[in-house]
Design a protein that fits this description.
The protein has 280 residues and is α+β, with helices and mostly antiparallel strands. It has one domain. It has helices spanning 14-24, 37-40, 46-49, 63-77, 134-145, 152-159, 235-245; strands spanning 83-90, 93-103, 108-121, 124-126, 166-179, 198-203, 214-217, 228-229, 233-234, 253-261, 264-274. Strands 1, 2, 3, 4, 5, 6, 7, 8, 9, 10 and 11 form an eleven-stranded mixed beta sheet that branches. β3 (108-121) and β4 form a beta hairpin. The longest helix has 15 residues, at 63-77. The protein is globular and about 60 Å long.
Length: 280
């Protein structure tokens, strides 16, 4: 499936767009543990998932949890058996959790899921809330989450479900935002895909970097996939909104430059605005 936003705007139902982007959207990772989906889960097909019916209240304030729910929904709709969120404990101590366990003919797939957004800032890529680092997430994924399935306690738990050997994979979606102002960004880790979803960021007091065009302000629930809207505002209106908003708030704000479609507006470019002192 094409991973350009334009390929998704014939799907005006937001939940379905989120579902398809979660499954087929561009990967943040490119490594030996991120194979093509058609190689490990050929049952997941765009034509089938477009017809998936999702609950109208299929929402969560935690986007990472929603991302996991969408994956579970896709597997269920495709009649792929799985176990989700398998807790691994040893002597009353939690070692971790396996996001997905999926039996195959000759193996069991262990898949770790993650939805992440990072802003490039000098020596690392930092989450909007500043409590998360891309380098730390990659290290945790490769050194703890993926090897966990080979722990003796984990293998015992998995054998209760399926006896086949375990193969571990990581599926990470999201967006990396490069600075457009007077801040450099750290080099991308080797594990990052060259085809990852990318955008730009800057502090609101340097909003003059925003290009001309029509814009849309995203709610947190809009972050997961390229946004479609029935309207867009001018750059001048957006700048007034940002000025007013940051008089009272300091949270990062995602916005999108929009392109005109036949029946609305579709995202062309994703930006993240932050408070003037966000990275100080």
């Amino acid at each position: 499936m094409a991973t350009t936003p334009e390929a998704f705007f014939d799907i005006q139902d937001k939940n379905k767009r989120d579902l398809l982007w979660s499954i087929f959207g561009p990967s943040l990772l490119d490594s030996s543990v991120t194979p093509a989906l058609k190689e490990i889960l050929p049952e997941l097909r765009e034509s089938h998932l477009k017809g998936t019916t999702l609950s109208p209240d299929f929402q969560s304030p935690r986007l990472g949890f929603r991302f996991e729910q969408l994956w579970q929904s896709a597997l269920s709709s495709s009649q792929v058996p799985f176990i989700a969120n398998q807790q691994i404990t040893e002597q009353n101590r939690t070692l971790g959790e396996l996001d997905l366990l999926i039996p195959r003919e000759n193996s069991t797939l262990h898949i770790e899921l993650a939805l992440k957004f990072y802003l490039g800032v000098e020596d690392d890529w930092i989450g909007p809330n500043r409590r998360d680092l891309l380098s730390r997430k990659i290290q945790h994924t490769f050194e703890h989450q993926l090897p966990l399935a080979q722990h003796d306690v984990a293998l015992d738990a998995i054998r209760e479900f399926t006896p086949t050997p375990v193969r571990s994979f990581a599926i990470m979606r999201g967006c990396l935002f490069s600075p457009v102002h007077d801040v450099s960004a750290a080099p991308l880790p080797a594990e990052i895909s060259p085809d990852h979803w990318s955008g730009y960021w800057c502090p609101v007091d340097q909003a003059h970097y925003l290009p001309e065009g029509h814009w849309y302000v995203l709610s947190k629930q809009d972050w997961l996939s390229p946004v479609y809207s029935s309207f867009a505002v001018s750059r001048e209106e957006l700048l007034k909104y940002l000025k007013c908003t940051y008089k009272h708030l300091s949270i990062p704000l995602a916005i999108a430059r929009m392109g005109k479609l036949e029946n609305g507006w579709g995202e062309v470019e994703r930006w993240m605005m932050v408070a003037p002192d966000w990275h100080s």
